[in-house]
């Protein structure tokens, strides 16, 4: 028999892994349609099996079939009330359908039971952003990151975006620095930090970041970074240093092997350097 839904202690929360059901992102084997056919066939034998119903709803959600996922979650709640905490998947499905207020309510309910759940916090962060609450979104996403062993670089970019939208660009830079502290000198994080430093009027800080990136870059990446450095110096109205940076780029390109020097990217950088030098005063 299933435990009573009125007893919180009796609930079996799928997030704990007690039943071994996948939470999200676990695609299993075969195509979506093959998985659905297999699950549907299994449900004909066991129509009230909560594990099968949950897996079917998860498969639908991961395939973007949010309306099907909602129906399947409703079926699950009907046949096994209180056995599975379905609010996370329901919240994600509602968010996929643009029903953000309802999605937040579902995710709030789930997080009341699982307050530190990384996926739920991240899902609610996106919903809060859609609801025009970027600061609350940033708070949730920061908590999600803290609960994740090795976050992806994109989540730090998203966190920075929430903070910028909330008018906290300096905090956004600190969030990116935290990401680099965890993941290393990820170029995308450095580039975004440089953009924000410039937006904050901190050209010297932006240049320092670029110099760090340039020092660690392999030879193939150096020309583009050298051009970025020259542009940055020009933006900061440091004309003499900008000219020297363009000259350094020109010399670097001239020393490349002929085939490398003749690539489209290198020819474009060489033309930009020559144009900048022609327009500058020695």
Key features of this structure:
0% strand; mainly alpha; disordered N terminus; 15 helices; single chain
Spans of at least 5 consecutive residues with low confidence: 1-29
Secondary structure: helix percent: 55-70%
End-to-end CA span: 86 Å
| Structure classification | mainly alpha
Any overview of this molecule?
The structure is a single chain. The protein has 282 residues and is mainly alpha-helical. It has a domain at 219-282. It has 15 helices and no strands. The chain has helices at residues 32-45, 50-62, 66-79, 87-96, 100-113, 118-130, 134-146, 153-165, 169-183, 187-199, 203-216, 222-235, 239-254, 258-261, 264-279. Helix 4 (87-96) packs parallel to helix 6 (118-130) and helix 6 runs antiparallel to helix 7. The longest helix is centred in the C-terminal third of the chain and has 16 residues, at 239-254. The protein is elongated. The N and C termini lie far apart (86 Å). Residues 1-29 have low confidence and may be disordered.
SSE topology sketch:
Elements: H1 32-45, H2 50-62, H3 66-79, H4 87-96, H5 100-113, H6 118-130, H7 134-146, H8 153-165, H9 169-183, H10 187-199, H11 203-216, H12 222-235, H13 239-254, H14 258-261, H15 264-279
Helix pairs in contact: 1-2, 2-3, 3-4, 4-5, 4-6, 5-6, 6-7, 7-8, 8-9, 9-10, 10-11, 11-12, 12-13, 13-15
Briefly characterize the structure.
By secondary structure, the chain is mainly α.
